[in-house]
Amino acid sequence: MAIKERVGLVVSDKMQKTVVVAVENRAPHPKYGKIVVQTRRYKAHDEENQCKVGDRVRIQETRPLSKTKRWQVTEVLNAKATT
After folding, report:
1. Spatial separation of the C-alpha atoms in residues 40 and 47, rounded to whole Å
2. What's the whole-model pTM score?
3. How far apart, in whole angstroms, are the C-alpha atoms of residue 60 and residue 6?
4. Quick check: 46 and 37 in contact, CB under 8 A?
5. What pLDDT does 80 receive?
């Protein structure tokens, strides 16, 4: 069985070792054809607390780590510049 991977944007980093990642899915509506954006939010494990809000990250499915956490951050693709 293949391991699921998603790329999304960090929308919250207020928890310890956990980030909330929003993953967008853009698909045409089956009847009308308009592109519809569906957003799914995943809680992901971030061991080093390196992710910040606005970072683009790759997450990977893993065993259940808590009641709602089933994903882990594998890499930070684009870190948001802090000024």
Report:
1. 22
2. 0.88
3. 7
4. no
5. 77
Which pLDDT tens digits describe the chain residue by residue (83 residues)? 789 999 999 999 999 999 999 999 999 999 999 999 999 999 999 999 999 999 999 999 999 999 999 999 999 998 876 65
> Could you tell me which residues come within 8 angstroms of residue 22 by beta carbon, excluding any fewer than 6 positions away?
8, 9, 11, 39, 40, 41
**Calpha distance 61→73 (Å, rounded):** 9
d(C-alpha 6, C-alpha 58), whole Å: 6
Which residue ranges form the domains of the chain, and what is each CATH number?
Answer: 5-78 (2.40.50.140)
Which tokens go with 39? 């957003």
Strands 69-78 and 35-45, sheet pairing: parallel
